[in-house]
Amino acid sequence: MNATMPDAPLALLLRRPDEVARRCREDDRLRPLAATSLGAILVGAAAFGGTLGTFRGGHQIAFAALKVPLAVTVTLAITVPAFYALATAAGRTFSLRTSVALVLAALGRASLLLLATAPVLWLAIDLGLGYHASAVLAAALYAFAGALALSVLVRGLGEGRGRVATAFAFVVLLAGVGAQTAWSLRPFLVRPTATDVPFVRETEGSFADAVVKSMRSSVGIYDAVWTGSRAVGAAGERAADSGTGWTTRGED
Amino acid sequence: MLEMETARTDTAAQPPLATHTSTPLPLPPATRTLASSLVGPTGADEGIAREAARFGGALLAAGLLGVALGTRDGGASIARHALGAPAALLVVGGVGVPALCIALSLLGVPVAPSRVVALASRGAGVTGVVLAGLAPAVALFVVTSAAPGTAAVAAAIALATAGGLGLSRMLSCLARDLDRVDSATRGLAHVAVGGFALFAAALAARVWWMALPILHGGVS
Fold first, then answer.
1. Are the Cβ atoms of B15 and A227 closer than 8 angstroms?
2. Of A158, A171, A240, B152, which residue is most buried, by most CB within 10 angstroms?
3. Between residues 119 and 148 of chain B, which touch chain A (CB distance below 8 Å)?
4. Are B17 and A4 within 8 A, CB to CB?
């Protein structure tokens, strides 16, 4: 064995996505790799979330530091079955254990990038970057980190037909689920002037709805938006009774 | 002195710390998993009993997506969608596949109807596995999206993806079987298979539209 080859799981996650993929596929020293990946998710995502929270400060730092790792781990739990299914459909007969390991390692690697970019985000906020610009920068860094997950997954799928298509399909799914999960757990960035800082806002539309609305708003088209509550049970019934749920809203 | 020179040369010849060669991993070896047993092999048939069990498993797996779709409204909606999601597989398998078998037989294609049925069950297996795998993601969108249209779109994308992959699997295996047929017959067979693909897609879409109320979300 080459004495210069990194063997510690953390070093492997950073430098050797091919070795990470191999260990996941062959169930080779998987436990320390999985533990390190999970630790990277919790620490990296918490650091990124806490940095987002510094925009407002106070309780929001703790709230966001708690919610970003939650968003990543929920995304992990939701996308693993999809990866398992898509890989099987593409002729890769992984066990569920291997699928979990690959996706966990992929997101662990992505979270290390979140940890690395947290200081950049903090500096930008500290230098006075505005609310919308901060949101765009944070979203871009989050998306870029997600793209980094691809390196482990593509290698894990191995050579052969359907590799790129499967990886692409999964990354699209990962992006969608990651975005919707984050949307469901918002707010992360809160304006400093906001008096009420909820831990989680009520369901309003979806991430895709928000993107479409923003694009249309940017060209002067203001849509009627769904503001009806999705609360479950009696609260939901009261919300349904109160109106149609559709209102016309101007610029956010 | 000579040994020191050799040692220095050896040190200089060692690769830098971060250098490594990355060898692409091969396809993973075939292992038996629940999903792979539903998807089935691409090669020889495994008998009618096994294919029937595979098709049944595919229906159950597809039902998981139905359960996910029903969580938006809860209650009876869960049962309704759980029955509606596999309905398209049942209808396409029961109506479309026999028609394809008849068409291929009339064209003189030397592919046994049992082979076509086996490939159809494997295609259904792929659809079922992908629907089951996408169920958690779809549940996220249908539960957390306020607008009905978003939930409908998420459901439609999952159904289209799974249906497309299953159909693709069936037809690609059938196309390989047609390679040993003469070119004229093969051409006609491809037309029949292409027609089946269009019919199956349209029929599945129609059945799902009728059987899954969530797809009507935001559309009057």
1. no
2. B152
3. 126, 129-130, 132-137, 140-141, 143-147
4. yes
Tell me: pLDDT of A236 over 60. no
The C-alpha angle with vertex B198 and arms to B196 and B200, in degrees rounded to 5, equals 65
The helix/strand/coil state of A226 is strand
By CA distance, what is B33's nearest residue in A? A95
Alpha carbon distance B191, B200 (integer Å): 14
Q: Please, which residues 227-246 of chain A have a Cβ atom closer than 8 Å to chain B?
A: 227-230, 232, 245
Residues 6+ apart with CB under 8 A from A42: A69
How many Å apart are CA A179 and CA A173, to the nearest integer? 10
Start-to-end CA distance of chain B, whole Å, equals: 91
Of B132, B134, B150, the CB nearest to A206: B150
Binding-face residues of A in 112-151 toward B, CB within 8 A: none
How far apart CA B148 and CA A206 sit, in angstroms, is 10
Convert the pLDDT of each residue in B70-111 to its tens digit: 999 989 999 999 999 999 999 999 999 999 999 999 998 988
In single-letter form, the type of residue at position B212 comes to L
Q: Select the residue of B24, B28, B129 nearest A89 (Cβ to Cβ).
A: B129
Whether residue B86 has a cis bond before it, omega within 30° of 0: no
Contact between B171 and B199 (Cβ < 8 Å): no
Residue A246, H or E segment: strand A246-248
Distance in angstroms (rounded) separating the CA atoms of residues A36 and B100 = 53
Angle, helices A163-184 vs A59-89, to 10°: value is 150
**The residue to which tokens 């790129």 are assigned:** A164
**Each residue's pLDDT tens digit, B31-79:** 678 888 888 876 677 788 888 999 999 999 999 999 999 999 989 999 9
Closest residue by Cα to residue B92 from B28, B182, B167, B17 = B167
Structure token pair of residue A82? 């999809």
**If you ran DSSP here, which 8-state letter would residue A224 be given?**
E
Query: Rounded CA gap, A45 and A68, in Å?
Result: 5
ipTM of this complex prediction, to 2 decimal places? 0.82
DSSP letter string over B51-79?
HHHHHHHHHHHHHHHHHHHHTTT-THHHH
Cβ atoms B117, B97 nearer than 8 A: yes
Helix (H, G, I), strand (E, B) or coil at A225: strand
| CA gap A8, A33 in Å, rounded | 9
